[in-house]
Structure formats: C-alpha cells, structure tokens
Write a structure and sequence with these properties.
alpha+beta, 7-stranded mixed beta sheet, about 25% helix, globular
Amino acid sequence: MTFMDSPNDPAQSYFECERYFQPIGEKIELAITGSLSGPTQQQKDFFAQVETDYPRLVAKFIPIIEAEFGAWMPLPVIKDFNAEFKPTLLDIPACSQRPIEWEIVFDTVHDVNHIVTVGMMDDEPQYVRIDG
C-alpha cells in the first residue's frame, strides 16, 4: 500500500493499493481514506461487506447506469452486467459515521474511452458520473 499524505488537510490522506475482489476473481484498485496507521477494522469490514453484497448491489447499479449512460449515448439494455462493466476502483471512506458515502468505478465495453462512477450512500446508488 502506498500512503498519499495530505499534510495541509490530513482528512484527505489516503492509501492506494490493489486487492483481490472475490466477486470478479481479479484485483481491483482501492483508495482508502486514512492515516499512516493504516486501514481501520471498520474499513476492512466495509470491504468484506461490499464483496458479499456485490450481486445485490449490481441489481441496484443497472437501472441508474442505464438511465445516465442512455441519456448520454445510445446504450442497449444491460444484458450481462459482469461482462459489460468491470469494477476497477473502490473508494473506501473512513466508515466512522453513517451514512457511509463511497464510490465504485467501472470500465465498460460500451465505450472504452470512458469510465462509469457510481456514487453510493450506504447501499443505495445516488448518482452516476461518466468521465473520459
């Protein structure tokens, strides 16, 4: 893990690393808010919960991604989310207060020049951002 220190605003310090993400059977990048002491048990538990809940979360991602992506460019109905969208980054916040606001970023076969970010509050999608 690489610590990215923000001396002027310690609350913005974070770790960057890669970790195996069981639902896809591959590594995913992690950005973990924190101090030099490392991730908290709450953050580790959060990651484990996202892994466990991932299939249920995907069902929530699909309609919000279809709506946003479809407004931006013609997108056929998502037929196989796991084949069409690959998670590449999970942003893990401090997890010290509820609701937990976090993001997950996907590459998509629908446009290789753009990424799709889903912003979450606990386990409910709040927004989709498409960047390229």
